[in-house]
Design goal:
With 249 residues, the chain is α/β, with parallel strands linked by helices. The chain has one domain: TIM Barrel (Alpha-Beta Barrel), CATH 3.20.20.380. The chain is 35% helix and 20% strand. The strands form 3 sheets. Strands 1-2-3-4-5-6-7-8 form an 8-stranded parallel beta barrel, surrounded by 6 helices. The protein has a two-stranded antiparallel ribbon with strand order 9-12. Strand 6, helix 6 and strand 7 form a beta-alpha-beta unit. The protein is globular. The model has no long low-confidence stretch (mean pLDDT 95).
């Protein structure tokens, strides 16, 4: 390929970020609770990452799982959290707000964009856009609100399935907002996705299953991977990060 694409690694904690950095990644999205689609990370993780790596860190701002239509108290928490992370060197924030009608919430999004830009950081609208009623209308609204980047799978379960939609979004909006493709991306399909869509950046979890045997004992079980009850959890794999980086060069 004529231009090296950007890989953003989805990390769930400081250890994930450290592995991603050592494997050669330059940018991460920092979360907690990835099994819920990613929630707000810890401040300690952000501080450690900025102290010990050169990673560009985009912090997820999401106080709970499920949807993206927040109450006033939830949004107050979001604003407070956002400012704390920005004041602690977050390079950007990932967030998403929808109305009950499934449209981009202009009022809440504007407030987060303005706050983020006040700190010279990047405003990223995450995959809430994939749950909106009209992707093109939603992205057009994000452009009007000066969002820097949007993460999308093209409204499909995986980016590969949504590649035609992503290609259209890139063609129509790619000069006005960065299109970041995510969901189901790995070293075997990333080049196909890049070629099919014309995008220049991808978002991937790069995880492998790990085991913590202390997740269960007696009649109590804290395992959360649905395919097993053996204490399985997911963590970033240096090998998978390296494989995608090699595939996009």
């Amino acid at each position: 390929m004529s231009e090296i694409a950007i890989l953003e690694v989805c990390c769930g904690n400081y250890q994930d970020a450290l592995i991603a950095s050592q494997a050669g990644a330059a940018r991460i999205e920092l979360n907690s609770a990835l099994f819920l689609g990613g929630l707000t990370p810890t401040l300690s993780a952000l501080r450690l990452i900025k102290q010990t790596t050169n990673l560009q860190v985009i912090c997820m701002i999401r106080p709970r799982g499920a949807g993206f239509c927040y109450t006033d108290p939830e949004f107050k928490e979001i604003l407070t959290t956002a400012e704390i992370f920005l004041a602690n060197q977050a390079d950007g924030l990932a967030f998403g707000f929808l109305t009950t009608a499934g449209e981009v919430d202009t009022i809440k999004t504007r407030q987060l964009v303005e706050l983020t830009h006040d700190y010279d950081a990047e405003a990223v609208f995450h995959r809430a856009i994939d749950c909106s009623t009209d992707l093109e209308k939603g992205i057009s609204r994000l452009i009007d609100l000066q969002v820097d980047r949007v993460l999308t799978s093209g409204g499909q379960p995986t980016a590969l399935l949504g590649r035609k939609v992503i290609a259209n979004l890139q063609k129509k909006f790619g000069q006005q907002i960065e299109i970041l493709a995510g969901s189901g991306i790995n070293s075997t399909n990333v080049q196909l996705l890049l070629e099919a869509t014309g995008i220049k950046q991808v978002h991937a979890s790069c995880t492998v299953k790990q085991i913590d045997a202390t997740a269960s004992g007696n009649q109590v079980d804290f395992s959360y991977l649905s395919q097993s009850k053996s204490g399985g959890y997911e963590a970033v794999s240096a090998t998978k990060v390296q494989e995608i980086l090699a595939a996009i060069k």
